[in-house]
Design brief:
The strands form four sheets. A six-stranded parallel β-sheet has the order 6-5-4-9-12-14, with helices on both faces. The chain contains ten helices and 14 strands. A hairpin with a 4-residue loop joins strand 7 and strand 8. Helix 5 packs across helix 6 and helix 6 packs parallel to helix 7. It folds into two domains: 57 residues, Arc Repressor Mutant, subunit A; 180 residues, Rossmann fold, CATH 3.40.50.1360. The mean pLDDT is 89. The protein is of the alpha/beta class. The longest helix is centred in the N-terminal third of the chain and has 16 residues. Keywords: DNA-binding, Transcription, Transcription regulation. It comes from Cohnella endophytica. InterPro entries: Carb_Metab_HTH_regulators, DeoR-like_C, DeoR_HTH, NagB/RpiA_transferase-like, Tscrpt_reg_HTH_DeoR_CS, WH-like_DNA-bd_sf, WH_DNA-bd_sf. Pfam families: DeoRC (PF00455), HTH_DeoR (PF08220).
C-alpha cells in the first residue's frame, strides 16, 4: 500500500472511530500540508467514503447507518453540552417528548442526575424509557409500536396513533442530518413519520444535533424548519456555518 493510500485509509478509520475529522486533525496526525489534507478529503468524497464539511469531513451516513453503540461513543462531550442546554429549557411540570437517538440518551441521563419533582416524558425509544422508568416524580408514556433494533425506536401506526392523542409542550428531536434547505432527516422512513408526528403534537420543538450532523442530509425527510423553535448544537459549530443559520432566521442555542 502506498503512503498516500495508507494515509487516506487512516483518515477513514479515524472517521469511523470519531464520526468527524478536521483539516487540522489530518495535518497534525499525518504531518502533511493543508493542500494535501484537502486533496485527500476531496478524493475520499469522490469515492463516497465521506462528506466534506466546513473545515473537515464527516462519515457518509446517507448510505450507511452507524450502529447505535458506535454512535454512543462518538462526540460524547459535545452531546453532554447539548444535553445540558436542553435540560435548561425544561421546567417543573412540563410534558416533554424525547425521540430516539444518542443525544437524547444524554438528555435522559441529565434528567436522572437532577430529577424534577413533577415531569412527564413521552418517548418512542425503548432505551430512553428503560433509563427513566422508576424515576421518582416522573410519569413515563411509551408510544408502543414496532421496535427497530438498529435504533431501539418504536415506530409505525401504533406509535403514531398514541401520539395523536397527546399534547406535548416541548419535543427534543434527534436527527441524523440537519441541512438548511432540506431540513431534518433520518435514516429510516417509518421512524421519520413517527418523529414528524411527535413534532406535530408538540407546542415547541428543539432539534438536537452536534456540529458533525450539520450541513448534511440523510435519506428520509422528517420535517422542514417551519415547526422548529431552535437548533441546539455544540460550541464547535464553525463560525461561517453559524452565521449562515442565523442569517436564515434559525435560532441557535
Amino acid at each position: 500500500m502506498s503512503k498516500t493510500a495508507s494515509r487516506r485509509e487512516g483518515i477513514v478509520q479515524r472517521l469511523r472511530d470519531q464520526g468527524s475529522i478536521t483539516v487540522g486533525d489530518i495535518i497534525n496526525q499525518f504531518q502533511v500540508s493543508e493542500a494535501t489534507a484537502r486533496r485527500d478529503l476531496e478524493t475520499l468524497e469522490q469515492d463516497k467514503k465521506l462528506i466534506r464539511t466546513f473545515g473537515g469531513a464527516v462519515l457518509d451516513t446517507v448510505r450507511t447507518e452507524i450502529p447505535f453503540y458506535r454512535k454512543m461513543e462518538m462526540n460524547p462531550e459535545e452531546k453532554k453540552e447539548i444535553a445540558e442546554k436542553a435540560y435548561g429549557i425544561i421546567r417543573e411540570g412540563d410534558v416533554i417528548g424525547l425521540t430516539g437517538g444518542t443525544t437524547n440518551m444524554f438528555v435522559a441521563r441529565r434528567i436522572i442526575q437532577q430529577p424534577f419533582d413533577r415531569l412527564t416524558v413521552v418517548t418512542n425509544a425503548l432505551n430512553i424509557g428503560f433509563e427513566l422508568a422508576g424515576l421518582p416524580g416522573l410519569e413515563l408514556i411509551m408510544t408502543g409500536g414496532v421496535n427497530r433494533t438498529q435504533s431501539y425506536e418504536l415506530s409505525g401506526p401504533m406509535a403514531d396513533a398514541t401520539l395523536e392523542r397527546i399534547t406535548i409542550q416541548k419535543t427534543f428531536l434527534g436527527a441524523d442530518g440537519v441541512e438548511l434547505n432540506r431540513g431534518l432527516t433520518t435514516f429510516n422512513e417509518i421512524e421519520a413519520n413517527t418523529n414528524r408526528q411527535m413534532m406535530r403534537q408538540s407546542l415547541e420543538t428543539y432539534v438536537l444535533a452536534d456540529h458533525t450532523k450539520l450541513n448534511r442530509s440523510s435519506l428520509y425527510l422528517i420535517e422542514g424548519w417551519q415547526r422548529v423553535n431552535a437548533l441546539i448544537t455544540d460550541s464547535r459549530i464553525p463560525p461561517e456555518l453559524k452565521k449562515t443559520y442565523l442569517s436564515a432566521g434559525i435560532q441557535l442555542l
